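Exam review. A common question shows you a sequence with its C-alpha cells and asks you to describe the fold in words. Practice with the pair below. Do the first one on your own.
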Amino acid sequence: MKGHVRLAVWCVVVALVALPIVGVLNGWFAASRWPVTKLTMQASFKHVDAQQIRAAILPHLGKGFFALDLGEVQKAVAALPWVASAEASKRWPDTLLLRVYERKPFARWNEKQLISRQGVVFSVPEAASYTALPDLRGPDDQMSDVVGFYADALKAFAGTGLKIAGVTLTDRGSWTLATADGAQIVLGDRALAGARLRRFIDAYPQVVAGHTDHFIYADLRYTNGFAVRWPEPAAAAKTAART
C-alpha cells in the first residue's frame, strides 16, 4: 500500500515538472496566445514621460507573458537618462507592472552633466539649462571633494547674507567660490583654503560695513589678509563713459 502512495506522489511531481515542457511543445505559452497587452506604471514623473518608457520596453514584449524577461525590462528602463532605477513584475494574464524611480538633480557638473542627490553623475541634453542648480566644476575623479567643499562653504556663509552658487577646483588644486550675485572668491591652494575662508568670514562684517552694494571679487590668497574689489560707483561709470 505504501508503495502505491509513493508512486502516486512521484507521478504528480513528474507531471508538474513536465507541464511547462509540454506547454511549450504545444504552443500553449506562445506570445500569440499570451501576449502582454497592458502596462501599469507607478511613478511620479517630472523629466521622464510615458512615451519614453513605452519605447524602451516595447522591444522586450514580443516573447509574450511567460517568456518576458523582467531583468531586461528593468535594464532598458533604467538606461533612460533621468531614471535612477526600475522594478518590474507581471500580473496574470497580460499585464506588466513597472515602478520607476526618477533621478532628482542636486547640482550641475562641469556645465554638461548633472549630479543626483545620491551623488551619481548623469548626462542629459539640457544639463546646461539648469541654471538654478549649484554650478560645480572640477576633475571627474574629485567630484566628491567638490561637493563636500560646497557643503562646507554653505555652512560657513550661513547668516552672512551671501549665497554660494558655485565651486570650482582646478587641475592644480586651486579653489574658487561663486556667489549668487556673480562675485568670485578666490581661495587658492586647497591645503590653505579652509583657513583662508575662516579668516574672511570672521572679518566679513567689517568688510561690508559702509557698503550698500555687493563686492564683485575677493582674493584670499594673501598671507595676512585679502583684497576685495567693489563695483564702480554709478557716477564714476557715467563719467568714464563720456570721456
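Now try the second one, then compare your answer with the model answer below.
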Amino acid sequence: MSIKTVLIIDDEEASRSLIRQYLSAHPTLQILGECENGLEAVKAINLHKPHLVFLDVQMPGLNGFQVLHEISHVPLIIFTTAYDRFAIKAFELNAVDYLLKPYTRQRFDLAVEKARQRTDQHALYELASSLPVRQGTWPTRIFVELPGRLRSLDLHLVLYLKAEKEYTRIHTAQESYLSSQGINAMEKRLDPQRFMRVHRSFIVNIYHIKEVYRDISRTFILLNGGTEISVSRNYINHLKKLIY
C-alpha cells in the first residue's frame, strides 16, 4: 500500500499552513482535512482513515498520545511539536518520525520519505506473512520491523508475545518488536508445540517457563528473566496438558 491520503492535526493555524505548504511539493499526497484539537482528531481519523497523519502533541481536548489510544484506525504517524521531551515516548509508540518545530522543508521531506519506506516494509512483511506454511512445519525465524529495515529474529529467543490493540509486541530477553499482526493471527502461525496461549493478551514460549505457581485463586507463569504472566481461566487447560 502506498501513501495517498494525509490528515493534518495541530491547534495552531500557522503550523497547519506550513504543513500544507510543504505538502505542495508532494502532489501524490491528498490532504483529507485538518483538525484543531484532539477530539476532532479522533473522529476524523476513524472517519477518513488516512494513510498518514501529521499529529501535534499538545492540543486542547486530548493530546497527541491520548488520540492514539482512542482511535480504531491506526495510520502512520509523524509527530510535530515544539517540545523535544516527548520524542522517546513517540518512538515507543512506533511513530514514523518526530518533527521538532521549527523544522525545514528538507527535514519535512525526509519524514515523508521515511513514511514511504515504512509502507514498503509493511508490504514486504505482509507478503512474507501470506506465504503458506506447509502442514506439519513451522517457521523458526521471522522478520520483525525496525526503522528503515527488517530484522531476522530466531523464534527460540522469543520469551512471550503481548497484544497491543490490533498489534502484537514480541518480547525477547533484550529487546521487543512491534508486529502489525494481531495476536490471533500470530498464534495461528506459531508452532503450538513451542508457543502456548495463556491469556487473550499473552502467548508464551514454553521453553522459557521457569515455574508455575498459584496465588489464592489465580495461576501465574514465571518466565526466565523474571517476567510474571497471569493465566486466565479460559486458557488454564492449555497449561494443564503439560502437567504429568
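Model answer, second protein: Residues 123-128, 130-135 have pLDDT under 50 and may be disordered. The first helix runs from residue 13 to 23. Full marks require stating both points clearly.
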